[in-house]
Give the backbone structure.
Amino acid sequence: MQKDKRQDIILEILQLDGKVATQNLADKLLVSEDTIRRDLNEMAQKGLLSKVHGGAISSIQKLYYYNDNVVKDQEEKNTIAKKACSLLHDGMTLIISDGTTNLAFARNIPKELKATVFTYCLPIAMELTEHPGIEIIFLGGKIEKKSMVSLGNEVVDKCANIHVDMCFLGTGSIGHKEGITEGSYEVSLIKRAIVEASDRVVSLATSNKLGLRQPYNICKPSQISYLITELSAVNPELQPFKKAGIPLL
């Protein structure tokens, strides 16, 4: 197959899937991985795509792409995500907050799920565009370019006008006495509004967030429906939370 034709096919796959893997392309196009890497490098130089580890993404997707290699504790966050997915069922309405743990959760949501998801996090909203059964409602406001989240009173006001079955909070800190706390005043306002809008509150937290406290309160332990970490529910680190009446997954 000629190079031009091969690269046209790569672009077609990118338009459909948003990303491509070097090995999969080599298998599909019956060429070596080195040939595919040369194609991707050439296409990246032309601005047709963006190279990432193991393949490429569309140039549009680079606006929200999080490289797995720079996300800390990826294995732990995937464990948390899979546990969180056990709470999902068709017909639910959800709010998903920002954070790389919640991004891992979004990536693990079953493709066949039928649900409505509100979020103010652009990477999560874009990730969910690959789920045909999910209606995505972006809680828009001013976009913070570094974090790619929407902050401000507009988001808080929109949260005040919705009601959902469950929210999934990326958690800055959580203590068995203090509950969930955050370090950012603006984010704390949004997360408080999210808690008020939700029937059930799910805290997604890697174990290094346990026992810590930050300046701004989000919710009390009694308001937390589930605490999900990468640890087993019988792990000694989690027993103070269990004694505080917080259900563990």
